[in-house]
TrEMBL record:
GO terms for biological process: proteolysis. CDD domains: Clp_protease_NfeD_1 (cd07020). The lineage of its organism: Bacteria, Pseudomonadati, Pseudomonadota, Betaproteobacteria, Burkholderiales. The chain crosses the membrane at residues 246-268, 275-293, 299-316, 323-342, 354-375. Residues 388-437 form the NfeD-like C-terminal domain. This is Membrane-bound serine protease (ClpP class). Residues 255-367 form the NfeD integral membrane domain.
Length: 465
């Protein structure tokens, strides 16, 4: 038994010598969004269940969505495992939402050549920069004007963000004055400047150097003091799993918009030609995935309504004689809705204008292409004239329609006809068939628009119109 225990202990020399708990390294890269928030939540839960002594958020982000940022901050504040935010590698940044996350962490570190800051909340909706420029011009001219509703909303967001980051700075004992300036004035700092102004706790070249630097430090976690022993601790790198990658792709606004378009057109095609099955199934799946992604993003519902209105108008153009009015209106509504769909200017969460233009041109081409094909088909020579209809039997579907040779025709007769009556075709006037009940003797078909029921019969003659 002792020999077996000795053999089991051999693969873990670091643990046997130091008894140190592992350190989990979690990458946080790109724009902060719903996928990032869920990934951090799962990583923190995994580190806690594994008994980790420290979580390193290796960060490089231009910012992100406010709800996702606050979710990560709350996860850090309630985590039973200390968290250090490490801006890495060289050239990385912790801008906007990344600055809030760094201030919320128990320890903050940076790599030389990195920066943080510019944490001002971006505008929401349309017209933000124009209002800011107008306010600046009015201030320069000495004009005084009452604030509009948009200005009040922007000031509320600015004050809320400033108070939020000041509270985080006071909680962690960091530079609260500079934190507020980062929000109000969008200032930034390099790694050395951040260390000198007590914004971060240390500067390290890589993760091993970081773990040696924090070894022996005492942090307060959940009201208790905890001393870190990280110099020889094993490192566990948490890589993004397939769920994170799938959610990251789905919550990309461009992908969500494309999925919605595929879903809507797939359902339209299925409803117009029932029985194809594949377009309906694929369309339903894409539409549900697109709606799932949009409910996690800051969606402007006016833009979503304009998007649906535009698609509806362009589809209706193919069925209604609007002479292009519905199509042009649908194009304008679709383009405006696609531009307004995502209600934020956060980097990485807007719909590119080139994609909006491409989808608009594609939808317009499809709509007007269907209309042109229908118009061209309408102008083609009549081919019904060559079919043998006179003399064939059918059954009334209602008082005005009958099924003849498996086709639905509008009919007229000298006597009233009811649903289910058996009728015989005695002539045709354009797209309307003249019929008579089957129990009456067969009438001689008109000479100009008919052919004999049996052209091989010797006692009947055939005429060609």
């Amino acid at each position: 038994m002792l020999a077996a225990l000795a053999l089991l202990a051999r693969p873990f020399p670091a643990l046997a010598q130091s008894g140190a708990a592992p350190v989990y390294v979690v990458p946080v890269e790109g724009a902060i969004g719903p996928a990032s928030a869920r990934f951090v939540q799962r990583a923190v839960a995994r580190a806690q269940s594994a008994g980790a002594q420290l979580i390193v958020l290796k960060m490089d982000t231009p910012g992100g969505l406010d709800p996702s940022m606050r979710t990560i901050v709350q996860q850090i504040l309630t985590s039973p495992v200390p968290v250090v935010t490490y801006v890495h590698p060289g050239g990385a940044r912790a801008a906007s939402a990344g600055t809030f996350i760094l201030y919320a962490s128990h320890l903050a570190a940076m790599t030389p050549g990195t920066n943080l800051g510019a944490a001002s909340p971006v505008r929401i909706g349309l017209g933000g920069p124009e209002r800011s420029e107008k306010r600046g011009a009015a201030s320069d001219a000495g004009a005084s004007a009452p604030p509009v509703q948009g200005d009040v909303l922007e000031r509320k967001q600015l004050h809320d963000a400033a108070a939020y980051i000041r509270g985080l700075a006071q909680l962690r004992g960091r530079n609260a004055e500079w934190a507020e300036r980062a929000v109000r004035e969008a200032v930034s700092l390099s790694a050395e400047e951040a260390l000198a102004q007590r914004v971060v706790d240390l500067v390290a070249n890589d993760v091993p150097a970081l773990l040696r630097a924090v070894d022996g430090r005492t942090v307060t976690v959940a009201g208790a003091q905890r001393t870190l022993r990280t110099a020889t601790a094993p490192v566990v790198n948490v890589e993004p799993d397939w769920r994170y990658q799938l959610l990251a792709v789905l919550t990309e606004p461009s992908v969500a918009l494309i999925l919605m378009m595929i879903g809507i057109y797939g359902l339209i095609f299925e409803f117009s030609t029932p029985g194809m099955v594949l377009p309906g199934v694929a369309g339903a799946i894409c539409l549900l995935l697109g709606l799932f992604a949009l409910q996690m993003l800051p969606v402007n519902y006016a833009g979503l309504a304009l998007l649906a209105l535009g698609i509806g108008c362009m589809v209706a153009e193919a069925y209604l004689p609007s002479f292009g009015v519905l199509g042009l209106g649908g194009i304008v509504a679709f383009a405006l809705g696609a531009v307004m769909l995502i209600d934020t200017d956060v980097p990485g969460y807007g719909v590119p204008l080139w994609l909006v233009a491409t989808l608009t041109v594609g939808a317009a081409a499809l709509s007007f292409g269907i209309s042109a094909a229908a118009l061209q088909a309408r102008r083609r020579p009549d081919v019904i004239r060559q079919t043998r209809l006179v003399g064939n039997s059918g059954r009334m579907l209602d008082a005005q329609w009958a099924e003849v040779q498996g086709e639905r025709w509008r009919v007229s007769g000298a006597t009233p006809l009811r649903e289910g009556d058996a009728v015989r075709v005695i002539g045709r006037e354009g797209l309307v068939l003249r019929v008579e009940p089957m129990d009456e003797p067969a009438a001689e078909p008109p000479h100009a628009d008919s052919t004999p029921a049996d052209p091989a019969s010797p006692d009947r003659t055939s005429t060609t119109p």
